[in-house]
Amino acid sequence: MSTSALLLLIAAMAVLGYWLGKHRSLALVGGGRGIRQLHSLPGYYGLLTALWCALPCLAILLVWLAGQESVITTLVLRGLGTAATSEHASSGLLMNNIRNVAAGVIPADGVSPQVQAGAAEYLRLRSISAMAISGVILALGLAALFWVRARIAPQLRARNAVEAIAEKLLLACSTLAVFVTLGIVLSVAYESIRFFHSVPVHDFLFGIEWSPQTRMRDDQIGSSGSFGAVPLFLGTAMISGIAMLVAVPVGLFSAIYLSEYANRRFRSVAKPLLEILAGIPTVVYGFFAALTVGPILRGFGESVGLEVASESALAAGLVMGIMIIPFVSSLADDMITAVPQSLRDGAYALGATRSETIKQVVLRAALPGIVGGVLLAVSRAIGETMIVVMAAGLAANMTANPLDAVTTVTVQIVTLLTGDQEFDSPKTLAAFALGLVLFLVTLSLNVFALYIVRKYREQYE
Amino acid sequence: MSSRTAADTRLLVEKSLRRRAWAERRFRAYGLGAVLLGVVFVFFLFASIISKGYTAFLQARVTLDIFYDPAAIDPEGTRQAETLAMANYSALVRAALREKFPEIEGNARRRALYALVSSSAAFELQHRVQADPSLLGQRQRLSFLAAANVDQLLKGKIDRRLPEANRVLTDQQIACADKLVNDGQLKLRFNSAFFTGGDSREPEQAGVWGAVVGSMYTLAVTLLLSFPIGVAAAIYLEEFAPRNRWTDLIEVNINNLAAVPSIVFGLLGLAMFLNFFGMPRSAPLVGGFVLTLLTLPTIIIASRAALKAVPPSIREAAFGMGASRLQMVGHHVLPLAMPGILTGTIIGMARALGETAPLLMIGMVAFIVNVPRSLADPATVLPVQIYLWADSSERAFLERTSAAIIVLLAFLIVMNAAAVILRNRFERRW
Question: Among candidates A285, A329, A391, which has minimal Cα distance to B42?
């Protein structure tokens, strides 16, 4: 049975369980009249039965889904013996062939007999596994149904039991966030450690040459397979820097104007308009940067006699800045409105003008919050991918000229991992090492910024 | 100070007043300038994309008189399915073109003539004949997609004044196209193929439907997973959780996950779902999983805010009537918070719809012609389709890219408008 059919089966058993439990409880007390003798409403007996039936089945199904492929792979490979695996480059490749033949992607008559045998074995094991899981789930579900049904009694505290289960489920959902973080750290760190086996950490972090193509021949030019990430860090810093040069002044000033000067009507029009910028997908900005802003800058550069690369850092940075404007402005807006009116009144009472009040009182009071917001914006700029993938270059140049093409960490992750890849080469693993750096840097920026923002908020609450 | 007279001070103050008034005006102008700059960016962005893309909604079509020549398709007259499937249908199109332009001779010149019609014309004829073999021997006036370059010519995007060598169309081709236009056989029509077709290497045949379906599957998985899990997590954190280290840890985690770059989620998806669990590459199912992880924090944060906005008196009243905590939440707090939660969910979904980078990591970036039929089929999504087309060097893809962006933005505008309406209509303020 397919997974969706199994899920349907479990759902059907749960519905049956609900019905059985509800009617059993009512039958025990002699129908609707005796309902007062029940500890809980009849529906709770039904729910309890359904939950007891569905949850173990779902758990088993999940374990099966997660484990079956690797178990079958091991069994198939063991069945073929070591001779077959040595003939093919690796067991992964062999297994891929077997799977493709089994799925009918590759015609079976064109492959070696080992692969044919493997495919047959694979299909046989799969069907056994599918039958086994269907049988187990059906048996387990029905057994649970009748076991709970037999235990239903008027004194059974069904509501409390259901609520206890529900609370556990809610708790499980909320811990998912922790597991996601854990998953990110573990998976990315694991691959990175494998990468650092072949490339030393300090070479990666402090090396100044980045050309991840490993060389096939000794005399090959340009593919030294060196993984010094400093040019990427500098490129990232430059593009993010340009973005912040655009986003911080524009965002901050528009936040000030909208919260301190603008009247209601202007605010109600301008604010949503600015926030449109936050809702536009980054791929659209990337397109805009690569095909509108880039050529404009190049044309402008030509007319004043400057050489602007067609994938200049400036174009990507400018557009990224535009993207971040609403982010900065809405955070700054929050921080400015959080400053108590009494501080403003005090400044006005001393004869300060509005702009003096803002510059000398409001902004100073809001400064920690604004700094926190800007740090969050920086972390967003560093992690931004599509704009730079589409509008920034691929070559790892070390340059301080914003008109040149530079590359960034995210661009390299995407280039290393899209297209044909083999999983064990340092080239692909390097992407995970870059991802780890990216994750750690943005994480520490976020933790620090959120700490500042929270502390600041508490100050005026 | 003491030596100064009152008049001096007055003068000083008056001078400084003027300066301060100026500073005030300047400051205000900066603020207004910043807001206007932002608004100008918005309009510039939209104007540049719409002006590039609106032409893609029209497409040049050639009308030709096709003679279903039995001698060319089925010379033996067997009408067998296999013969009909293998036949050379482009010969029919070529014959029709030769008939229209008898004056063009020579192989090279004829080949240039044939290049005016898209290669999809032959497939179209094949489908027609396979559906109805009795067409053989008949004549029919049919309209076909014109080649992308002809389409660009009609839209005025090919400069006729350029020397012939610098143009994608030769003088002869342009002359033929002009003749077809004059005879009413070459026209711009509404481009329905763009909305019903999958991706293609030929710009004139490429459509967004495959990507739209892929996006729908992916979003469906995302919604089905992230909505229940997100709401459950929010309920636990807001209504049940004791304040201790564990819940603090969860909270910090959620806030941080909301700010983790999306590409890191892609790396997680690649390492965990594809390499560890062995799930299929390019599948909407895996895309949905990754986007679920990505949108969960958004939904949790929005749901918590919505739950927090329900006044405590409602909870106390429910407890007072003897409700259990779960009943209190399920019967009272959650329904009251639902509009806010739904608003947050829609906004989260809108973000997931526009997300590209993590999906590149799990291989949804492949060239896929077929419209996906199931959650495990290889598929691509709208933003990735935009990325793929934007990368293409062919000029005709430029307007397709912009048009796909317009489609994507239309979806986003609808979703955000739904969120705004929901908020305005149903959200209660206490």
Answer: A285
CATH number of the domain residue A286 falls in: 1.10.3720.10
Segments in chain A below pLDDT 50: 222-223
B304 confidence band (pLDDT: 50, 70, 90): very high
Looking at residue A280, its pLDDT comes to: 93
Please give the ipTM for the structure prediction: 0.89
In chain B, which residues have their Cβ closer than 8 Å to the Cβ of A326? Answer: 38
CB contact under 8 A, B326 and A274: no
* Residue B215 forms contact with A (CB below 8 Å): no
Measure CB to CB from residue A184 to each of B23, B45, B264 and give the nearest one.
Answer: B264
**Minimum CA–CA partner of A287 in chain B:** B390
Is residue A243 domain-shared with residue A383, that is, in the same domain? yes
Please answer whether residues A356 and A347 qualify as being in contact, where contact means their C-beta atoms are separated by less than 8 angstroms: yes
Query: B316 CA to chain A: closest CA distance, Å?
Result: 19
Partner B contacted by A451 (CB < 8 A): no
Residue B191 has what pLDDT?
Answer: 87
- Which residue's structure tokens are 């509800």? A22
Instruction: Give yes or no for a contact between A328 and A255, defined as CB atoms under 8 angstroms apart.
Output: yes
**Tens-digit pLDDT profile for residues A264-311:** 999 989 988 888 898 899 999 999 999 889 999 999 988 988 888 888
| Residue B63, beta-bridge partner list | B143
Residues of chain A in contact with residue B367, where contact means CB-CB under 8 angstroms, are none
Q: Across the interface, which of A173, A379, A382 has its CB nearest the CB of B236?
A: A173
Q: Is A174 on the interface with B (CB under 8 A)?
A: yes
Domain residue extents for chain B: 61-189, 209-426
- Name the residue facing B387 among A270, A283, A383 (closest C-beta): A283
Say yes or no: A298 and A394 in one domain: yes
Q: What is the pLDDT of residue A86?
A: 55
Report the alpha-carbon distance of residue B267 to residue A412 in Å, rounded: 13
3-state SS of B173-235 is HHHHHHHHHHCCCEEEEECHHHHHCCCCCCHHHCCCHHHHHHHHHHHHHHHHHHHHHHHHHHH
Under 8 Å between Cβ of A434 and A232? yes
Which fold does the domain B209-426 belong to in CATH?
MetI-like fold (1.10.3720)
Looking at the domain assignment, is residue A78 inside a domain? yes
**How many angstroms separate the CA of residue A5 from the nearest CA in chain B?**
14
Tens digits of per-residue pLDDT, B37-85? 999 999 999 999 999 888 888 888 988 888 888 887 777 777 777 777 7
Domain identity same for A44 and A147:
yes
Please state the domain count of chain A.
Answer: 2
Hey, is the C-beta of B32 within 8 angstroms of any chain A C-beta?
yes
Assess A442–B contact: CB distance below 8 Å, yes or no. Answer: yes
* pLDDT at residue B93 tops 70: yes
Tell me, yes or no, whether A121 and A255 share the same domain: no
Is residue A161 a contact partner of residue B237, using CB atoms and an 8 Å limit?
A: no
Rounded distance between C-alpha atoms, residue B213 and residue A100, angstroms: 25
Is A279 within 8 Å of B412 when comparing Cβ atoms? yes
| Largest Cα span, chain B | 121
Asked which of A156, A171, A202 is the last residue of a domain, the reply is A156
Same domain membership, residue A239 and residue A327: yes
Q: A137 and A234: one domain?
A: no
The answer to whether residue A239 is domain-embedded is yes
Among the candidates A137, A156, A175, a domain finishes at A156
Give per-residue pLDDT as tens, B260-287. Answer: 999 999 999 988 888 877 778 888 999 9
Amino acid identity, position B131: A
Query: Domain limits at A449?
Result: 226-460
For residue A171, is it within any domain? no
Give the residue, B122 or A96, on which the prediction is more confident: B122
* A288 contacts B49? CB cut-off 8 A: yes
What pLDDT sits at residue A222? 47
A385 and B263 within 8 Å at the Cβ level: the answer is: yes
